[in-house]
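User: Can you fold this complex?
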Amino acid sequence: MPKGVAKMNAQQSSLCVNGVDTAVLGKTVGAIKEDPGLGACKFRVHNTWAGSTRNSSSVLDFYGAKQEMKHTRTFVMNADEPPMLAGQDAGANPVEYLLHALASCMTTSMVAHAAVRGIRIEELSSELEGDIDLRGFLGLSAGVPKGFTNIRVTFAVKCAAEDMKKLRSLAEFSPVYSTLTSGTKVDFDIVAK
Amino acid sequence: MPKGVAKMNAQQSSLCVNGVDTAVLGKTVGAIKEDPGLGACKFRVHNTWAGSTRNSSSVLDFYGAKQEMKHTRTFVMNADEPPMLAGQDAGANPVEYLLHALASCMTTSMVAHAAVRGIRIEELSSELEGDIDLRGFLGLSAGVPKGFTNIRVTFAVKCAAEDMKKLRSLAEFSPVYSTLTSGTKVDFDIVAK
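Assistant: Here's the predicted assembly.
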């Protein structure tokens, strides 16, 4: 475990497992059980094209617990493509951001669900690799999918041996994992500026 | 159009449309047409848990054009959750990264495919919003999906009026759009560290 994490865990109360305050999570669960409408969330980004293959998203507000909420600050995410894909490598590319979304969501889902079950995780990292055939994106072959055909994830975890087998089902709580494996509806409009 | 974009476009050759060097794209298309195996790409991230709901991905290498390739530098992406979700807001959360991946991919797909068709785009921005019901993630209701049930995207574009209606099918070339709307296979293993 990184030193900072160990220190944080040590400083926190007994309700804190894996650095997650299970009292906060428990309160959220209790409130949503009582009023299911509190579970509805809307997450948002605003994206601006910056020329060529560069663009930037900002994230500030979201909707949750029946109210408009704000992050403590605006987060900015820059995307570009490598020279091979006609870009200038000013940022990770969109499909790499998708893999990050998956890695981070499965990690947080595993850690938080482990916490509420009293499963202590000491270290956790992951390697992800996904396959895309450019013939799809470039429109060279109608039979070739445009997106990822397969994503492989390997998590390396340090925890008690008897807890290892419990982690798999906890990772599957991940909203991004669920979105990617089940697919989702994406509606889009294009309007004049 | 931002001043920098206008300047860049003005400085570039006549093969450059929307800041995209269509000669580079044309070369890629030609090479893959000749040898379809060149289209196979593998994109990767490495993620490390940093305690609580914080984790960080790094991106450096990828596989494309039948060889291992490297970005010009390592890109780092930090994720966290807002206090409402037991985090400390040290970064955008995983589902917001997913929305950014979608926004950036649809934007780049539209811009690049417009470029090779000679469609000039002057300005382009987008607003995305996606719905998630926390009851799914929290395991409170088996019937509630864990992931996004619907994502709405609105693109605002400045371009010639007669080109507006051509953009919709270009955005649909996006690999992330395709992955999200069709779903993909995600295989994962959990091994001891």
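The radius of gyration of chain A is 20 Å. Chain A touches chain B through 137 residues (CB under 8 Å).
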